[in-house]
Structures are given as C-alpha cells and as structure tokens.
Amino acid sequence: MKTQSLAFWRTPFGEHRILDLCMEILHNYKEDEIGATNQAMRLIGNCCDEDSGSDANRHRILAETPFPTLFACLSSEEHAKGAMVVLFNLCQDGICDLGSRAVH
Questions:
Q1: Over the stretch 23-58, which tens digit does the pLDDT of each residue have?
Q2: How many domains, the chain?
Q3: Which residue segment(s) compose the domain that 50 sits in?
Q4: How far is CA 7 from CA 43, 50, 67, in A?
Q5: Is 82's pLDDT higher than 50?
Q6: Dmax (CA) of the chain
Q7: What pLDDT does 93 receive?
Q8: What is the pLDDT of residue 103?
Q9: pTM of the entire structure?
C-alpha cells in the first residue's frame, strides 16, 4: 500500500539528477539492453506517481518529451510493461496532453 509518507524520496531523485540519469538511459534506448532500460523506466514511473505529492518530477520528465522512446518500448515484449506504467503515471493526473507532446 502506497502512502504519502513513503513518497519522500521521489522529489530528491529529481533534484539530485538521478532522474536525469534514468531519462538519459531511456533516450539512448536499445532493445537489447533489457536490464538498464527496465530499471530506468521503473524509477521514472515511480518518480511521477500521483502519490508523490509533487508534480516537479512529472514536469521534469515531460520537459524531456520521452514519448517517442516510450512508444518504441511498447513494441518490445521485454519493455512494454514498464513503458505502460510510465505512460499511465505521467497521464493519470490530466496534466499531460499526450497527443500534442507525442507528435513533436
């Protein structure tokens, strides 16, 4: 069960560039790098979860426009689940206009 008290680590991951490192791994996506890509998506998805109490990380992620890479991950059996979680967490609050960001 997620609670607000367990979300304290999410904002520092964005502030101290750990999230940036994971975004870089995602941007350099290679289908055969299963472990690194899955772990990066896992952290990205958790950093923008609605229970984080802050939209700062979600905005950091959206500024990097990861949608083309996430859409590519959807076609990989090994990466599809992680990509779906990230996309869901980004879009669940309604602040993400998926359509307009995906085409850029």
A1: 999 999 887 888 999 999 999 998 887 665 567 888
A2: 1
A3: 4-102
A4: 13, 10, 25
A5: yes
A6: 37
A7: 62
A8: 46
A9: 0.78
> What's the rounded Cα separation, in Å, for the pair 87 and 101?
12
Q: What is the mean pLDDT of residues 47-74?
A: 83
Q: How far is CA 90 from CA 31, 32, 33, 46, in A?
A: 22, 25, 23, 10
What is the 3 state secondary structure string of the chain?
CCCHHHHCCHHHHHHCCHHHHHHHHHHCCCCCCHHHHHHHHHHHHHHCCHHHCCCHHHHHHHHCCCHHHHHHHHCCCCCHHHHHHHHHHHHCCCCCCHHHHHCC
Looking at residue 39, what is its pLDDT?
A: 95
CA–CA separation, 33 and 55 (whole Å): 29
Burial class (CB in 10 A: 0-12, 13-18, 19+), 18: middle
Q: Extract the tokens encoding 34.
A: 């299963």
* Encoded amino acid at 78, one letter: E
Q: What is the C-alpha separation between 76 and 74, in angstroms, rounded?
A: 5
